[in-house]
Amino acid sequence: MSRQISSLLAIAAVCVTLAPTPAFAQAPKKAPVDCEQVKCLALTFDDGPGKYAGTLLDTLKKHDAKATFFLEGQYVKSRPAFVKRMVAEGHTIGNHSYKHPDFTKSEPGTIRNEIKTTQAEIKKVVGFEPKLLRPPYGLADLQVSEIAGEFDMPVILWTAGSQDWNSKNVEAIKKQTMAVAQQDGIILMHDWVKQTVDAMPAIIKSLQKKGYHLVTVDDIIKRHNLQAGDVFPVPAGWSAQ
Ligand SMILES: [Zn+2]
């Protein structure tokens, strides 16, 4: 065999080795967005999959926007098709407990069980466990962060909220979201709020017009090198605890 052919074969062998195994039909990744070079923002949707998740996914797809969904185990169980679609279309999914108790008022055993059963429910549907935890109400303390560490997950909070659950008004949700949008921001929204899903085409268009790339939380935290149990963004007063 000539030297040239054998080195070509060696390259081919490397390519085959590096090709990802298609364990689950995940969206083909385009060139990743580099949030150090461009303005990034992560929209996050809690408590779902909500009943309007299908419409929301259509909107995200149409505008080439990615999002992060912090899911409740109980709804993963009742609406698994949405979870499959989220993953297939390149969004990130995270754990948001099974039934949404306040972790800061829960026994350690309850917290572990809420996280564990949700991980299991998600794995049953998409074949892998999520790597991000957002505790219900975004409430965390040292115990919550320690338990997140046991599950090898950082705790992801948000930089600002859309107040959508409170206003339930399309114009107010749009106005609030635009007011709190900032580079590398993580915004809290809910896909069970119909008005949020209704407002989303206009919100995405306005954000993209302002130069934002709508990315997943993974893209935002990439360069922060978070460890299991870390809380991000660090809430005010956290170090005092
Ligand atoms: Zn929630």
From TrEMBL:
Coiled coil: none
Annotated GO MF terms: hydrolase activity
UniProt signal peptide: 1-25
Highest taxon of source: Bacteria
Keyword Acyltransferase: no
Annotated InterPro entries: Glyco_hydro/deAcase_b/a-brl, NODB_dom, Polysacc_deacetylase_ArnD
NodB homology domain residues: 39-215
EC number: 3.-.-.-
Keywords attached to this entry: Hydrolase, Metal-binding, Signal
PANTHER family for the chain: CHITIN DEACETYLASE 1-RELATED, GLYCOSYL TRANSFERASE-RELATED
Name used for this protein in its record: Polysaccharide deacetylase family protein
